[in-house]
Structure formats: C-alpha cells, structure tokens
C-alpha cells in the first residue's frame, strides 16, 4: 500500500474512532493524555461549530525570558521552518503563540486559521491540537489530520514538544512544527523536540544573566549559574523589590519588610549593603531597586492568573509562597494569590486536574471540596475525600 493510501486509511479510521468516542462520556477507560480524552474535553468546552480560526489577542508587552531566548535563536528556527517547508511556532504557557515563522508552503494556510503571533490555541478555545496537548501532558505529541477538533485544521499534521526551563524544570512554553497531512513524517516529533532543545539552550544562556527566584516550596535564588546564599531577610527584600519594580525608599522598604516590629534602620541598611555585594552591585538606591532582570515563579503564577490560564496556574503552583515570611507586604500578597487560586479551583470542571493537584498537595481543602462537588455522591472516591475533608 502506498504512503498516500495508508494516510487516507488512517483518516478514515480516526473518523470512526472519533465518532465512537464523542458518543460516550468521559470515564476511566480512556487514558488521560490521549487524543480521545482531548476530544471529550473539547466537546465539553462547547466550542462554536462554525469556528474557522483561533481567536487573536494582543501579545503582552512584558518581555519574558522565553521571548529573550527566542531573540537569540531566531535565525536558527527560521532556517528550520523554511528548510522543512513547515510553519514553526512557539507558544507560551497560556498556549498563545509568541513567535512564528511560516514557509511559503504553509504561510497562507497558517494566516487563514490565525496560526500567527497572538493566536490563542488553548484546548478550551479551539479544541484538540498538538500545542495544547503537549502543554496538558508535558510530553511531545503528534496530532494528525482529523484528530484535530477544529475542521479548519484537519488538513494539517502537527508535531509539538514542551520547552523546559533549564534551571527550574518548569514547562515555560511549547514548540510546534506543522505541515499538510499528506506530508506526514514519522520523524516530525523528533524535529519538534530538536527545536525545543534549541530554545532551551538559548534559555540556559539567557538565565545566566537573570536572577532566578523560586519561592514556592523551598526558596532558592540563582544568578550567573550559581546559587546565592541569601539570608531570609535578604530573600524577602529581593521578592519585595521584584514585585515593586519602581523601587522603594528606605522608610517604605522598612515598613514592607518589618511592619511594626522594632528593627532599626541601621539593620536594614546593613542587609542592603550585604545584598548589593552578593548581587555584584546590581542593587540601586534612592530608591532601592533591582538593576537586573528577574525571573520569578511567583510572578509567572500571577501572570497566569491574570490571563485566566488555569492549567498554567496549577502547573506553576508548587507550594505556599514563602511560608515562613513575617513581612506584612509579602503576607498580604500571598493571601491574595491563595485566594485567587481557590477561586480558580472552585470554578474548575476538569476532575483530572484536581486529582493531579491533590496528588501534590493533599492538604488542599479547596480542591477536595470542589472534587466532592463534581463527583457523583455514590462515587467510591467520595469516602476517601471525606476523610481528607474531615
């Protein structure tokens, strides 16, 4: 059988499987990361049947570490797109395309469906696609032809691979290589993974010039490839100045850090002097402010919540922000974030995401309560969840 005939037969088999799958409800017999499960999630999202292109949104003016890395490997990725006769796109955690380059073969098709910068390709917006599937599973994926939920891209085959931050291991985006279905190649996923590695290499170089802050769970700071030995107060100062990019004078910083505690201004000045030395002088004064770029997990979490990206927010939430801080400013900020996370959880309809969240944070009472609401009263997990709730 010729390759073209094989691919046509595959399309017919997919259509038969999809029809069977969409006539059933989501249950435990379908693997969570599978195409079939994605079809059912897409159906539940009630995507408009006449949708012909992804929604477009203005790309945030905040230049992320991913954007800066893409600037470094721009020409290399463009060469791959044109040499492969594909369209190559990089999307962020919200599944919005931040960078794209299309070959002549795919340029018109990609523009028609808004596979362009600013295009929003979340599964809840356009249904099953490789970008969204890779972000959902954290694994490489291929979505072939009519495996796509949206009719407008059922002539495509797409290969995607997640991009991992080299320091934190967090998924920060996804690479997608797409072409027409009749050009399907078994090596497509490997090509997407190679592109992801190129971006990760650029991220590695970029991150050495950026202060990396991890504050969920175990607090850690890295700069120029080294872990910084910051005191708890210095860590709090860095977090405050990260959240207040405009800077603070000495009185404002003292209030934000200590509140009504009886700590002298001299003590704070000493902390600032030591911190400036640790940061290689990259700490300004009058007002006090950071003079270097910062990539902080708590800022990424806030951006995900601002964008309404529930999946990214749950991925980014790795524990309570600075659990032992006594800073009134940071406590107030943390309480707001925790409240926003609870609000997100109580609106969540995806039981698997809730279960995944609970597997990492079994003490998350809000997730327990929401899961109890979603599961039938006679579901066997209700008894287990009741023990957590109690």
UniProtKB/TrEMBL annotation:
It comes from Acinetobacter marinus. It comes from the Bacteria. This is Transcriptional regulator. InterPro entries: GAF-like_dom_sf.
């Amino acid at each position: 059988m010729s390759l073209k005939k094989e691919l046509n037969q595959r399309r017919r088999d997919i259509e038969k499987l999809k029809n069977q799958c969409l006539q059933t409800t989501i249950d435990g017999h379908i693997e969570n990361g599978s195409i079939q499960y994605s079809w059912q999630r897409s159906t539940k999202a009630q995507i408009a049947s006449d949708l012909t292109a992804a929604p477009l949104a203005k790309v945030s003016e905040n230049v992320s570490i991913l954007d800066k890395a893409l600037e470094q490997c721009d020409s290399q990725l463009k060469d791959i797109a044109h040499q492969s006769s594909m369209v190559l796109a990089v999307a962020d955690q919200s599944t919005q395309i931040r960078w794209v380059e299309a070959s002549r073969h795919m340029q018109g098709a990609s523009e028609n469906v808004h596979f362009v910068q600013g295009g929003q390709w979340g599964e809840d917006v356009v249904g099953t696609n490789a970008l969204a599937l890779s972000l959902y599973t954290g694994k490489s994926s291929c979505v072939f032809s009519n495996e796509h939920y949206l009719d407008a891209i059922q002539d495509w085959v797409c290969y995607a691979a997640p991009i991992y931050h080299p320091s934190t291991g967090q998924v920060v985006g996804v690479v997608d290589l797409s072409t027409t279905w009749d050009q399907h190649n078994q090596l497509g996923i490997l090509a997407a993974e190679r592109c992801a590695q190129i971006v990760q290499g650029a991220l590695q170089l970029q991150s050495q010039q950026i202060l990396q802050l991890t504050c969920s769970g175990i607090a850690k700071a890295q700069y120029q490839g080294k872990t910084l030995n910051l005191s708890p107060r210095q860590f709090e100062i860095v977090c405050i100045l990260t959240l207040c990019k405009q800077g603070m004078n000495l009185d404002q910083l003292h209030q934000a850090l200590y509140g009504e505690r009886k700590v002298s201004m001299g003590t704070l000045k000493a902390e600032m002097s030591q911190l400036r030395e640790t940061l290689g002088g990259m700490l300004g004064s009058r007002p006090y402010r950071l003079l270097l770029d910062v990539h902080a997990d708590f800022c990424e979490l806030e951006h995900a919540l601002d964008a309404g990206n529930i999946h990214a927010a749950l991925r980014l939430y790795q524990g309570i922000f600075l659990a032992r801080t006594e800073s009134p400013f940071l406590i107030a900020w943390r309480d707001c974030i925790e409240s926003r996370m609870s609000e997100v959880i109580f609106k969540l309809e995806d039981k698997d995401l809730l279960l995944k969240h609970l597997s990492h944070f079994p003490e998350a009472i809000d997730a327990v309560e929401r899961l109890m609401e979603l599961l039938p009263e006679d579901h066997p997990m209700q008894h287990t969840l009741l023990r957590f709730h109690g």
